[in-house]
Structure formats: structure tokens, C-alpha cells
Amino acid sequence: MVINKCYTLCHCAILCNRSQVTEVFVKMMKLGLILVIGLPYVFSICDEGWTQFNDYCLAFSPDLLDWYTAASMCLLYDARLVQIDSQAKQNWIVDHLKARKITSAWAGGSNRYHNSIWKWIPSLKPLKNFEYWTPKEPNNAPGENPTNPVNAEQCLEIGGPQNYHWNDRWCGIKHNFICEKKAK
Ligand SMILES: [Ca+2]
């Protein structure tokens, strides 16, 4: 068939009729669409044990660590504690926490050293674009923190008992934690 000799639209326009040109054009559009959609997945590969969400790879640690040690552990893997900046990401994380039967986990939010303003660490972006606090949280509740009852709760946990809404918690509590790093 003549259409098999159509290598480009220009070449085809010379050799083929209008319907054949249209057919080749549609095929090229489909191929382009597949490449545009597929290429990010081909080149955005996460290491084993990490799961991709958009441009990031996330890892859900089974270990229980305090917030600072958890943040340091993420750093060892060239990652950070997770920064949750959208409802879609919150929902995706909750699904994965439930699948792993993790009831509470550290995320990267903290108001320590920032005049009590909640920011994501280490990006220092404020939480103002998306927040998912449990009603009446953050409440800086004293009781758990044995050394600083004034600033008792300065780290952000995603808490199962609060249906995975956020809670400020004493940073010394040992939790599961979520690391994230840029996908390759
Ligand atoms: Ca609290």
C-alpha cells in the first residue's frame, strides 16, 4: 500500500490521498501522546522500597523513631521527612499507611525554631497552602514532654486515631515516619 511508504506527513502528502494523510496524522498524534504521557514514568524510577507519587519517591519506615532521628534517617538516604502540600498527596499517603497498618507517622512539619510558625523542614515552606489539622489542633498540649511543657508539641504527626488528620505532638515520641526524595 502507498500508505506504508508514508514516512513523514510531507512525504505522505505527496504520495497519499487526504484520508491517508489524516490517518498518518492521527497515528503520529497518538504516538506523540503516548511519549508525552509515558516518558516521565520511564525516566522517573524509584529505588527499591520507595513508591512514586508525582515527582517524588516515598518510603514508609517500619522503624519507630523520634522526629529528629527520623529526619536524620531520611537525610541518610538523600531524602527528607515528607512534605504534604495537597489533598491528593494526603489521600495517597493515608491509603499507603492503611495498607501497611501504620496508625501514626511523622511528617516533616515543625514549628520549633520558627517563632511557633508551622513550616515544612527543611524547605521552610509554611503550611498555609494546605493544612489538614484535626479539629482543635494544633493545641500544644502539655503532658508528654518532660523537658519543655511550654512548647510541648512541636512536630507534626499524621495520626490514625484522628482518622489520619494532623496533630502536633511531642517530638520525642517514637513513631513510624515517611521519607521522600525527588524521583530520578
Ligand atoms: Ca496536639
CATH class placement of the largest domain: Alpha Beta
Number of H- or I-type helical stretches: 4
Could you spell the SSE succession in H and E letters? HHEEHEHEEEEE
In terms of DSSP E residues, the strand content is 15-25%
Looking at the structure, the CATH topology of the largest domain is Mannose-Binding Protein A, Chain A
Characterization of the model:
The protein is of the alpha+beta class. It folds into two domains: 2-43, no CATH class; 51-182, Mannose-Binding Protein A, subunit A (Mannose-Binding Protein A, Chain A, Roll). It is 30% helix and 23% strand. β1 (51-53) and β2 (56-65) form a beta hairpin. The protein is elongated. Mean pLDDT is 84; it is low at 1-10. Bound molecules: calcium ion (CA). This is C-type lectin domain-containing protein. Keywords: Disulfide bond. InterPro entries: C-type_lectin-like (IPR001304), C-type_lectin-like/link_sf (IPR016186), C-type_lectin/snaclec_domain (IPR050111), C-type_lectin_CS (IPR018378), CTDL_fold (IPR016187). It comes from Candidula unifasciata.
Outline the secondary-structure elements.
Elements: H1 9-15, H2 18-43, E1 51-53, E2 56-65, H3 67-76, E3 80-81, H4 87-99, E4 104-110, E5 119-120, E6 155-159, E7 165-169, E8 175-182
The structure holds calcium ion.
Calcium ion is lined by residues 137-139, 141, 153, 167-169.
